[in-house]
Amino acid sequence: MRSLLSRSPIDGFILAILTAVVVAAVLPARGEFADVLDWVVVVAIGFLFFLYGARLHPRQALEGLTHWRLHLIILAFTFVVFPLIGLALQPLLRPVIGDDLTSGLLYLCLVPSTVQSSIAFTSMARGNVAGAIVSASASNLLGVVLTPVLVVVLMSSTNGVHITGSQVLEILLEILVPFILGQLCRPLVTPILKRFAEPTKYVDRGSIVLVVYAAFSEGVRNGIWSIVGVWQVVAMAVVAIVLVAFMLWLTGWLPRRLGFHREDAIAVQFCGTKKSLATGLPMATVLFSGSVVGLIVLPLMIFHQIQLIMCSWLATRYGRAAAALGAAESESEPG
Prior knowledge:
This protein has one domain (1-316): Na+/H+ antiporter like fold (Up-down Bundle). The chain is 83% helix and 0% strand. The chain has helices at 2-7, 12-26, 31-55, 58-66, 68-97, 99-108, 116-124, 129-155, 166-184, 186-195, 197-221, 230-257, 262-272, 277-287, 290-332. α2 packs parallel to α11 and α5 packs across α8 (129-155). The relative contact order is 0.17. It comes from Gordonia oryzae.
């Protein structure tokens, strides 16, 4: 089976993501299984960030925290460039995909970056993981305030908008606390990680596949695919592909023009192009009335799956290039 996957023209990780989507469409998590899956995802994410904390030397974590230029450009892409693009596309897309889906496209441009997949892809591509952790976490923390403000200002949807502290607490408990625990336990955990380096690398990919299945299952349970026509979904998918491709190009080109090193540029690219389904879905239920939530979040759901597939391909390509470069440098060193 492993040799078959190695000969496949499609990367095994992408196949796993597509499989998760298909399984969720046919057999979505329901009832008690869905409740258990939610907890499994939470535990997987917590364990993921515990490992990141254990892998990073405290000096690297401190450098990630103080790298203000990196965090500023990522936040600018997330909360300035994306909203401007969303606004610019409004008059062009309303005649094509309708008012609700076009509003949904603008909404996806306003939500914060993903956390777990941004950092996992940065790690796979051998980028600045410490900086990605800080930037992605900061994006979600700031997004709890900035996203509703942007929705009110840009979408004129002020009815029922309110913010609770539960979203902030959830990010702290799932992301920052496990990371800090990993840092504290690093002397004890490092020998184990070195011994089992190969199995632990699948934690990054496995957590993303779990998130994809859980998110798609929720969409299927809510009957999102029966609300719109097939042609609208196809049109939205094309728009999402173009938007992801453009943002990947922009976030890859601009940081290098500004003098960022390779590792930092990779962190910008994978943190600055993502939009969080896990944060955007519950926030939409707070910000919008129940009758339009399904259509509002559909563009975000489509964009989320496309960004995972495209970024997984790019991260794998970067990772292989970095591995090949490291092997070449090792061979060139005198024995």
